[in-house]
Amino acid sequence: MSTPKVQSFLSTRKEQLKNHGRLLIKCQDQPGIVSELSNFLHQHNANITESNQYSSNPEGGMFYMRIEYYAEDLPLKARFMEQEFKKIAAAYSMAYRFAYGNELKRAAIYVSKELYCLNELLWEWQNGELPMDVAVVISNHEDAREMVEALGIPFHYIPANKDIRAQVEAEQIRLMHAYNIDLLVLARYMQILTPNFIDHFESRIINIHHSFLPAFIGARPYERAFERGVKLIGATSHYVTNDLDEGPIIEQDIERVDHREDVASLKKIGRQIERRVLARAVKWHLEDRIIVQGNKTVVFH
Amino acid sequence: MSTPKVQSFLSTRKEQLKNHGRLLIKCQDQPGIVSELSNFLHQHNANITESNQYSSNPEGGMFYMRIEYYAEDLPLKARFMEQEFKKIAAAYSMAYRFAYGNELKRAAIYVSKELYCLNELLWEWQNGELPMDVAVVISNHEDAREMVEALGIPFHYIPANKDIRAQVEAEQIRLMHAYNIDLLVLARYMQILTPNFIDHFESRIINIHHSFLPAFIGARPYERAFERGVKLIGATSHYVTNDLDEGPIIEQDIERVDHREDVASLKKIGRQIERRVLARAVKWHLEDRIIVQGNKTVVFH
Amino acid sequence: MSTPKVQSFLSTRKEQLKNHGRLLIKCQDQPGIVSELSNFLHQHNANITESNQYSSNPEGGMFYMRIEYYAEDLPLKARFMEQEFKKIAAAYSMAYRFAYGNELKRAAIYVSKELYCLNELLWEWQNGELPMDVAVVISNHEDAREMVEALGIPFHYIPANKDIRAQVEAEQIRLMHAYNIDLLVLARYMQILTPNFIDHFESRIINIHHSFLPAFIGARPYERAFERGVKLIGATSHYVTNDLDEGPIIEQDIERVDHREDVASLKKIGRQIERRVLARAVKWHLEDRIIVQGNKTVVFH
Amino acid sequence: MSTPKVQSFLSTRKEQLKNHGRLLIKCQDQPGIVSELSNFLHQHNANITESNQYSSNPEGGMFYMRIEYYAEDLPLKARFMEQEFKKIAAAYSMAYRFAYGNELKRAAIYVSKELYCLNELLWEWQNGELPMDVAVVISNHEDAREMVEALGIPFHYIPANKDIRAQVEAEQIRLMHAYNIDLLVLARYMQILTPNFIDHFESRIINIHHSFLPAFIGARPYERAFERGVKLIGATSHYVTNDLDEGPIIEQDIERVDHREDVASLKKIGRQIERRVLARAVKWHLEDRIIVQGNKTVVFH
After folding, report:
1. Residue A47 is nearest to which of B31, B39, B42, comparing CB atoms?
2. Angle subtended at Cα D9 by Cα D7 and Cα D13, rounded to the nearest 5 degrees
3. Is A53 within 8 Å of chain B by CB?
4. By Cβ atoms counted within 10 A, which residue in A85, B90, C290, D211 is the most buried?
5. Do C230 and B249 touch (CB under 8 A)?
6. What does the pLDDT read at residue D165?
């Protein structure tokens, strides 16, 4: 699909979804929240089209809710609604967030030499499955340039190694701001990120790790899976925190393997898992289906 | 686990859940429903602990909702709440149903010679997974008697064949009323039920069919799966209607098979699928997670 | 990956596998077959590296075997071995086939407007997962041309409809011979093939059907799955015979769905299943892992 | 099913399988092995009914093979065949093992308070899925006695804690010898076994661990899975070695979970996984489908 096709597709989608909004909240569980929220939306002539809630404990636990709603002329009244909502949020000490169907998140995809995860994301994006603007692709190798630029997406080659990490990350942070990035996807980007970098983008960096965490944290998981003789291999998509491979898990999946697999064939099987696990996690993030609480995620799907 | 243990377990469970209620509704989608329902519960000091909704189409489709709530002294005010709710139901032309944690559904299990589905249900029931009173087991064979009576459950042997179908069903209907049955589970009961029988228990008979419907409707599905050379076999649990194997599907599952399987081994593999598919469907029914609409089910889980 | 890269990759692979052979046999089960075959290979200094066998019934059933072997200088002696093997084959009335690692099958891929299956095949081919020469892509639409020609693969646009079927198929058969095709893959080619066409390529046409057969044979399976309210949807890859959707099944897979899915979302989920099911079936065919017997397949994997 | 039924079933099975044998071998890969083995069987009028082989590397790796064969009057000639086979084994430095359809392995099942794995094993045993003599059940609690003795199986209550471990294990070892045990199944036996005990039964103790190893080695895996927020939970069956939870893995499986699960519901879901994973591993062991090599297993199924 050529670039103008993607642009046209995204424009159409934004127009179609311009009257659709989402509200995500998180607060201490307490009586009357649902009633309050549904009254608020009803008063603004917003009709609830999808609703999910979860309470970690009805007695004193945390309450999480995601509502999708439809309202005529939503773009004209969204800011007013947000203003009005502040009173409710204050009364219940809510953390909350509004999102709108016509505001696509702007994503940066980081990649190294292995391109299959990037491929999957761009493919699903072109199929309309991933509602985002792919604003830029960053790589410490040139391999992806041709494919990325063919889609009209800016590509930045930033060589990286541990000796120049500070200046590399400074340049990356500058680019993220220049491109006004909402989401960073590490699609097999094989460089360590420092706490300084990560702190700039809390709960906005999604990584794919090539094992079912917490098994095989760290390097060479397929090699270690082979050595351990596991009968399943997996992949995990998670938000990146300063603890390596310890951030909130968004999605995991596995495939069966047997004694005949060597490391190379484990990697081939693993690629298929990584592809789909990362694509699902990114999709759910883009659709605002994920609420992070501590080191865990609530995923409403 | 002995019978007094089961009784004691069920009593404890009813006591624990006595302040828990469920409300299921179905109506034309229209603005304000969620607001109305949540206000209603809030006014009666009922706190929503789980909520699911689904709209087949926000513009003129059907709206389905299931709410679990907690209210102090619920048994004392449940009938009053139901009375009060009638106004809302009328205003929105709702079909609706209340259910309570301390009112267990009364189930009859029908079985023939193959006992593995009955076994699974009784096992999961003893484990506390299936909140029901197993009021009676009906069979056209004596095989299950010993096991059933050992659990203190009444067992009725009613021989059946097509020549005596009318009188058999008359006796069965009589027993269902005598035992005050809410749910009939056909756990591999290998007799045809007539429309007359089925009409007595609409959306209250759950069957397990030993194929992934609509493949292999009717008799001998494993033999036909073998002949067709499928690479997956499955099982389907559904509500029974007058169209054989055509009722609303509740749950399906499959396992992989390969060319080495013969009919006997397909049946062995299939047993494991049937067991778990039927147990899940019964569990969801008992927890009031299923809303039937036309020939389909909405399952909130 | 650019075309020269693919060519270079395939050349390297053929060189690496030039001493690897495969022998597939099918005959009445009888004592001594394995002994005979293993002696034969041993006498020709061929070392068995993988071996699979299956007997439908040790007493008078059919016997199937697939052997992978390695022999120094295999290309120099392969024809001699084949000549020598004729005696064994005659003695046991075997149907048999030799295949060699350095002889890639030549494939034609047929496609219409939906390109995701074609995409998957070409991707996996570029990744080295599908050892074949993609000799030509045939389509009754122009959509795939750009992508296909960018990989250096000939693309033929042959408009098709039922009024011109005879001349279309004559042209297609001519092309298949011109390109010396061993395998036809129908990657969502939405035209009926006549018995005349199919007879030219027995057990060499692989189709992907978008349901778990035998459910939803024929047109519009996703629409019918939606109407039936199934909880699983699937896809089936099979060899094409003159009975529509009734040919020998090679592979099937499914995904769970629920009441929230509409036809459009079923199709999206289904695409992922179709992609992987077709890619697996093609891979197994290319690796000579499939033996067709009657309307069923033995798949050694 | 009552005890005489089980006995009668096992007798029938032994009679049916009395002419069926299995041969498992392990040695350095080298040319001619398959030829040698198939000639040997052919010369003794033994017909191969199933055969699996695996080479870790055709150039200098290990070779593993499992053959099932059928021979008239096998019990009369089995010892002679074994004697004859010694020459082949010596020539190729094979480790090998013969097993026979009419010689059931004698199993001891160890259990503590959680009975669901024991239940599954006894159920599958009664269904004919697990060809073994259940010689004895050992427990450090009395909970299982009634169920076990009702099946006519000896039950030994041996209280256990770390202070009396040495004497407990001495008694257990004595019992294993008194009952002539071939296989120990730890069906949720919640006591540490010392190296001394384990050394007595190398590759003959099968454990079920309630996580997908190597994740959550050690105690309280469900609690730790909850804390980590994983989206899959699993179970692992493995041979017990002196490294806790580090022995050769036989089988693993998983189920999806989400944020709504608490520790109690994870345990309930986990039970279903543990049940089936353990039953499969025991079945494969009983059918001599597992070859241990180092810390890994080759499983031919």
Report:
1. B31
2. 115
3. yes
4. D211
5. yes
6. 93
